[in-house]
Amino acid sequence: LTLSRSYPVPQHVVEAHGETWTDVLNIVTNGPFRLEAWQRGEFAILTRNPVYHGRTTGNVQRVKVSLLADPAARLGLYEADGLDFFHLCDLPAADLDRARHRHAGEYLSVPTVTTHYVGFDVSRPPFDDPRVRRAFVLATDRETLADGVLRGTVSPATGGFVPPGMLGHSPGIALPCDPDRARLLLAEAGYPGGRGFPDVGFPTDHRRVPHGEYLQAQWRENLG
After folding, report:
1. Out of 21, 131, 195, 214, which could bridge 17 as a Cys pair, Cβ 3.0 to 4.6 Å?
2. CATH topology of domain 130-223
3. Does domain 4-102 have CATH number 3.40.190.10?
4. What pTM does this model have?
């Protein structure tokens, strides 16, 4: 329920304004800040909400948030003293390494309670067969993805869906990387060596291209 998708939305405002309900003059919020200005694709300005009754109110009066889509542009803005902080995780891996070294004295790495995952459409073939889903998991080397492709900015999800730090986290319950077992399961499901396996789509965004390319290569190499 802490995800933004679960936040309450004022139905009467949406019904009254339709697609413009998020405009500055229409939007209704219930958090510690109000939307003062919003330039799409550029920035948003938030000001302290005087009627917020949360337990932690803080002392920040105004925040300007960069909405630039290009992470390199945001990094440039940070280096020009235009931002107080900047998330490096959106940078390409090579640029991320350079930025971490260039700003070593300012770089801070902290864990977040998040799990990134690949979801399968289990309502139709081929992923309606649990053997196929298990084969794809067994054919994936999470450690290399986390430590190599993503430069150690994440940790392998070896404790199931619930991340460390949350109740229900179970260390070590995830399936290991076992390409031999993966190929056996895929053959049992009717796709020996990957033969006859249909083309499947793997939608992603620009931030996840390295993830997708790595997974594609892993599955091609380990499953055929």
Report:
1. 21
2. Dipeptide-binding Protein; domain 3 (3.10.105)
3. yes
4. 0.73
